[in-house]
Amino acid sequence: MRKMILTAAISVFALGVACAGVDRPIEVNELPDKAQSFLKTHFADVKVSLAKEDSEMLYNEYEVVLVNGAMLDFSSSGEWKQVDCKYGQVPGAIVPKQIKDYVAQKYPDAKIVKIERMRKGYEISLSSRIELEFDRNFKVVDIDY
Predict the structure, then answer these.
(1) Is residue 7 part of a domain?
(2) Contact, 91 vs 43, CB < 8 A?
(3) 115-129 tens-digit pLDDT
(4) How many CA atoms lie within 13 A of 92 on its CB side?
(5) 47 is in which domain, residue-wise?
């Protein structure tokens, strides 16, 4: 009996692993409502080149590539996780005020080209190739060049 339970558990786990990490292209209207709203609010004038759903074992994530080269990652609920505007600037409305103020003071000629929201805070990349990491209280905890 134990062998049957163990075999069944291993089979279920193997099936889950085999199905995890499957990407499939989707239409913009298949994105979660929050992600669709985010795109309409901050990138209304830019067309979507590709949208895909990344099915993980326990949740889904979404990736969107815009025709201007910007890449956006969304959680399963549609909250933005990362915005990478390689050839442009991250919309100011999504950057917390404390981060905008810090960058304006310390790096006045640089633009924020990438922002990532993480559990422990934020990470940004500047057009000057400087990367800054902020904790939840918007204190700089790491700088890379």
Answers:
(1) no
(2) yes
(3) 999 999 999 999 999
(4) 7
(5) 22-144
